[in-house]
Amino acid sequence: QVQLAESGGGSVQPGGSLKLSCTASGNIFTVYDMGWYRQAPGKQREFVATIDNRDNTDYVDFVKGRFTISRDNARKTVFLQMSSLSLDDTAVYYCNVRVMSRTLIEDTYWGQGIQVTVAS
Q1: Which of 18, 20, 28, 92 lies 20 to 30 angstroms, CA to CA, from 116?
Q2: Segment 66-113, tens digit of pLDDT
Q3: Number of H-type helices and E-type strands within the chain
């Protein structure tokens, strides 16, 4: 099994910044794509950003220029630096990681989610 531990959420005022982290542990041989999704109240979960194991990144349009995704392969950790936060960024943020296990089985895992609240 693979566990994902998320941290860094909380409350911030509009225009503020937060940095999320997600560390994968457990039965892991290789970590492939690592990413973040979010789900606002009453809305469906949506893609935010992803980074592959060659550091190629992709972002949804509404976070480009404000959010930066990065990873530390040695620590099996993905980060999401969020800046210029607005009320619309309030959501539960979920880490998403695709791994190959030591038994050479590929699968995708979700974190439990971490709350980010932007409020004045």
Answers
A1: 28
A2: 999 999 999 999 999 999 999 999 999 999 999 999 999 999 999 999
A3: 0, 11
**3-state SS string for 89-109:** HCEEEEEEEEEECCCCCEEEE
Whether 51 contacts 67, CB under 8 Å: no
Task: Output DSSP code: residue 28.
Answer: -
Task: Report CA 1 to chain centroid distance, whole Å.
Answer: 19
pLDDT given at position 27: 92
Return d(Cα 101, Cα 117) in angstroms, integer. 34
Q: Which two three-digit tokens encode residue 20? A: 């999320």
Within 10 angstroms of residue 58's Cβ, the number of other Cβ atoms is: 14
* DSSP characters over 44-96: --EEEEEE-TT--EEE-GGGTTTEEEEEETTTTEEEEEE-S--GGG-EEEEEE
Closest CA to 32 of 10, 48, 54, 47: 54
